[in-house]
What does this fold into?
Amino acid sequence: MPDTAEAELRRLLGIMAALRDPHHGCPWDREQTFATIAPYTVEEAYEVADAVAQRDFAALPDELGDLLFQVVYHARMAEEDGRFGFADVACRVADKMIRRHPHVFGGAAERDAATQTTAWEAHKEAERLERAETGSLAGVPVGLPALTRAAKLTTRASRVGFDWPDAAAVLEKLDEEIGELRAELSERDPVRLADEVGDLLFVLANLARKLNLDPETCLRQANRKFERRFNDMEGLIESKQLTLAEVPLEAMEAAWQQVKRTERSRSAQPGPAQP
It folds into this structure.
């Protein structure tokens, strides 16, 4: 397996070099830059996460391959600029993993998961200092999904004691933010409304963190639940030879509630529950 993996990786690196060849490569691939490829990198990472969430292990190798190709793409462009190559990328991450796991690759005592998490964050903090990134919030990537970044920012703040004592206190803050949003509704100032909605979302991300939940995962599950229920509602109405455009909101709401009752009935039966 190692020999096969090495051979396939070399083949992939060769394919990437051919695609970027200035004379015989693909015109589209040749004109790409770090900035134009970065959105595809993010997209491919999400497709990996989606395959995992769907437990689609048949699709996962393809999605992981697409993500690996993004790494190879960035490394190739950097090599063309004389900055670094794929070997440097692999070396950096290998060295980092060894450095951050002295209990596996060094003489440090064995650790449980909680101790390792604390040590991991200490290593990351030391690395940020080496990069001259100062401040408790330094190094939280701006490009993260907003809910994830909110959770990470407040996690960092909590390490220095700037945090609510418990989830109940966050709920009180949530009530406060809802009140401030309500107060802005009459004015309809888009700037103020955006500010208040942002505060509300920020507090919700905090609430998820205090409950040991990932806010992005919570929202993805809610999206899937809405999508499933909407599709079932639409199917229920179409079974009566009608379309959504032909029925009033009250009929859609009645169908929606029927879908929810059916789901609850199914979840009460033995078997895996739907989110």
Observations:
- The chain has a mean pLDDT of 91.
- DSSP finds twelve helices and no strands in the chain.
